[in-house]
Amino acid sequence: MPWTREQTAERAAKELEDGFYVNLGIGIPTMVANMVPKGMKVTLQSENGLLGIGPFPYEGEIDADLINAGKQTITDLPGSSYFSSADSFGMIRGGHINLSILGGMEVSQNGDLANWMVPGKMIKGMGGAMDLVAGVRKIVVVMDHCDKTGGSKFRKECTLPLTGKGVVDLLITDLGVFEIDRRGNGGSTLIELAPGVSLDEIKSKTEAEFKVAPGLA
Amino acid sequence: MPWTREQTAERAAKELEDGFYVNLGIGIPTMVANMVPKGMKVTLQSENGLLGIGPFPYEGEIDADLINAGKQTITDLPGSSYFSSADSFGMIRGGHINLSILGGMEVSQNGDLANWMVPGKMIKGMGGAMDLVAGVRKIVVVMDHCDKTGGSKFRKECTLPLTGKGVVDLLITDLGVFEIDRRGNGGSTLIELAPGVSLDEIKSKTEAEFKVAPGLA
Amino acid sequence: MSSKIFKSAEAAFEGLTFDGMTVAAGGFGLCGVPVDLVMALKQSNAKNLTVIGNNVGCDNHGMWHVLANDQIGKVILSYAGENKILADAFMSNRIEIEFNPQGTLAERLRAGGAGIPAFFTRTGYGTRIAEGKETREFTDRDGNKDWYVMETGLTADLSLVKAWKADKEGNLIYRKTARNFNPMIASAGKVTIAEVEEIVEIGDLDPDSVHTPGIFVDRIVLSTGQPKHIERPTTREKEAA
Amino acid sequence: MSSKIFKSAEAAFEGLTFDGMTVAAGGFGLCGVPVDLVMALKQSNAKNLTVIGNNVGCDNHGMWHVLANDQIGKVILSYAGENKILADAFMSNRIEIEFNPQGTLAERLRAGGAGIPAFFTRTGYGTRIAEGKETREFTDRDGNKDWYVMETGLTADLSLVKAWKADKEGNLIYRKTARNFNPMIASAGKVTIAEVEEIVEIGDLDPDSVHTPGIFVDRIVLSTGQPKHIERPTTREKEAA
């Protein structure tokens, strides 16, 4: 049985480590914020200029000057800090953020990511996605394994315009988890299967070429 | 009679305008700080990170955390602001400082300036001088017209290593004032003589070629 | 001694606008937007503007009004969502949009203000954003070789920023995430106008805590106090006691 | 949850030093220098260091001690005055000095911390500083064509900074002109240690007034409170009453 959205987020949360500074994208990645293990310290960055994102505010306590990158009202925490967009992306581009978990439209077997535009449709813009994938130490992409028509979103080559070339370290889909050796040209390796998902099933639903970790074959 | 150091500084002070942000070098330029006309607002920048330099502190009120670029203890003023060296030189390089008055070893007729090293001697370093001459809107150099052996310091070409190429707008010496059309390739023009200094005298003491403004010839 | 303080946004605009000019405005979504100044830009009726900002307003808010008044020929932004007029104008080729990665846009504005004509960034390498731009390989601090894209600095004829507090020198302090693009945009303008919620006396701001030194601010206006809009008000339930 | 706070400069250095490493240290003259950390660097006895800073101490102070201990092979600085050992070592070719314009050095460190491998600046064009470097013509915002020099980002294996206050997250606030190179150096270190005059509780620093966010600070030590030296104490007379 494939992972649910919640289970996919829980799998992504296993990439968190104590002391990490993390940037979470919109959608399933946002759910990871509530899955930090007890006793582990993780600091969330919002690329519009906040380190230390707190929970959503109580009604009546919202502050128009305090939003996240998804334009939602949020709160800060004791120990938070605010900074400009230039300083924020200095942090990101300079490799100071340990981990970013992002959604994707397509990922290729060499770690290319497409998640910002579909030709012919109105382009909303890439916002901070291109900077995050270029700068953050480890990039985890969370997405459905297949599109609505059953086509593989994990591909030999992305068909959509890229957000970044050779940027994805780990791909988590509803069917399994792939490690991508984006720097070493070692390609992709399936390292986990969702419970009840067979190797044959994931192979049949994947266009990308991948190795299979020992123990899964 | 050539201008004294004080008179040279007073001549330089005529370049100040209301609302100007100004960076003053060490030596004669520093004296300009005390020559701002009454009612004129001039804000002094110290490139180590202060906008709004105040007077020297009273004894017993010195603060080791508050120095100018010459390492002297200073004070700030109401309305001052502190910033990092990167932000300070962003201001300078970005053309936000209206005027800098600096000392010089040699100036050439096309506006080159040498004021940071003498080959064979220990090099102290250029500090912020190269950034100032490259970034500040208007560069005024104040120096003695001749060196100790009577040689002209205003030259066809500088013989010392340059601080900046084509950077000086106005040269004030103890003998007179030269405008330098550093962008338009219009060369140098003598626009003022110190009282009692003749055109012949300044010509005989100057290696650089220069035009003479109408009224002085 | 002339004052930087102007009575109104309209007064602060006097003599500054012309057709074909470039205007940069602070804000991220509806947060930290100089709304009075943007309306004064609309009232100026200057045409064929190039507008720089993270976004150019969104439906019925901010720079959207200037867009709706048909004053904008080109926008330089990172996000064009939630803006139907912009989408329509773009899809029918009535407006040019130059998409920038958000961090690249922020850095281009900082560079423009700091006298840096160009810099290299890994952001966008191998994507459409790099097409037609110079690329080059550098080695990072960990010894990894990577390809980088050259991006250029951005400046504006007029910069419009929103701050929380200003003193009469033009020193600015921003509040929380309303800071966003405002500091770099303040530095990138040939002329910069700041709209602020409070004007305090000289000496009332802690000089160690000033975000934008007064040197970057030419004119200051007190905000008329329009309500701040929120795109996605989000709250949580109070836990049971 | 591991703590960023260490008991002493020596403790904070544990496991961080090695021969041939690059160390960047904040300070301008004797102002804003992490003196305890610099002495710990001396005690580490790591050799053949490359040291980055505006200056490398001055006679009997700061990084001069590390220099006097013969640990430094190369310095990257903007000012080498008031430092006899450095002058002697340089004139006798026992040390390499890379002179940088002060603003270029500051920007190179900022660039290194911000993932910018190279940028262009007008500073130094046509001088010795530009020799061997790529130069290129750009047009500035006023339409002036000028030549610019390409400079590269700088990072360090270890960065040593001095701040006024820190909280336990590593958020830093500097005091007056003791800020100088410290913020960029904090961002340019693979590992950054901050020496501070006061460690406050989480929540005691105003989040709008933090100069260096804690993400850039790995280890924190409380200063032992050595007296701050002043190179040129300068005062004025009290006016007659």
Question: What are the main properties of this structure?
Answer:
heterotetramer, A: alpha/beta, ten-stranded mixed sheet, three-stranded mixed sheet, 13 strands, C: 241 residues, alpha/beta, nine-stranded mixed sheet, three-stranded antiparallel sheet, 6 helices, 20% helix, 28% strand
Describe the structure in your own words:
The complex is a heterotetramer, with 2 copies of chain A (217 residues) and 2 copies of chain C (241 residues). With 217 residues, chain A is of the alpha/beta class. Helix content of chain A is 16%, strand content 25%. Chain A is built from 5 helices and 13 strands. In chain A, a hairpin with a 5-residue loop joins strand 11 and strand 12. The longest helix of chain A has 9 residues. Chain A is globular, with a radius of gyration of 17 Å. Chain C has 241 residues and is an alpha/beta fold. Chain C contains 6 helices and 12 strands. In chain C, strands 1, 2, 3, 4, 5, 9, 10, 11 and 12 form a 9-stranded mixed beta sheet that branches. In chain C, strands 6-8-7 form a 3-stranded antiparallel beta sheet. In chain C, helix 5 runs parallel beside helix 6. The model of chain C has no long low-confidence stretch (mean pLDDT 96).
